What we know:
Structural class: alpha+beta
Order of helices and strands: EEEEEHEHH
Helix content: 10-25%
Oligomer: single chain
Largest sheet: 6 strands, antiparallel
Strand content: 25-35%
Number of strands: 6
Shape: globular
Strand order of the largest sheet: 1-6-2-3-4-5
Radius of gyration: 12 Å
Distance between the termini: 11 Å
Amino acid sequence: MNIKLRKAALSNLYVGSIVSIGESFFGSKPGTVGVIYGINDGAALVINSNGQFGAFTESCLDLFMVTVVGFANTLCSYQCKNTEQLIADFKNNLFGPAFTAGQQIL
Length: 106
């Protein structure tokens, strides 16, 4: 599979984007895979493969060296209503295939 990695910017992030987080993020190791689950008020909302979630502004995308590595079509219409739903969706492995795809690319 020939995937061209590209530096993340808010202009090229969409719900379902699979990203690699190059720096430690809430205790996760550099290179942890994440999925964009929302774009809100100038920030990308991301959940990583460890179940940690947060928001990245444009400057944080640079600071944490976030790189787009793929896209999960199955998540492109995902709508997060609240934190409890996000955690339940994570526990029910909704994001699992995207994490696996991202790890295989890296």
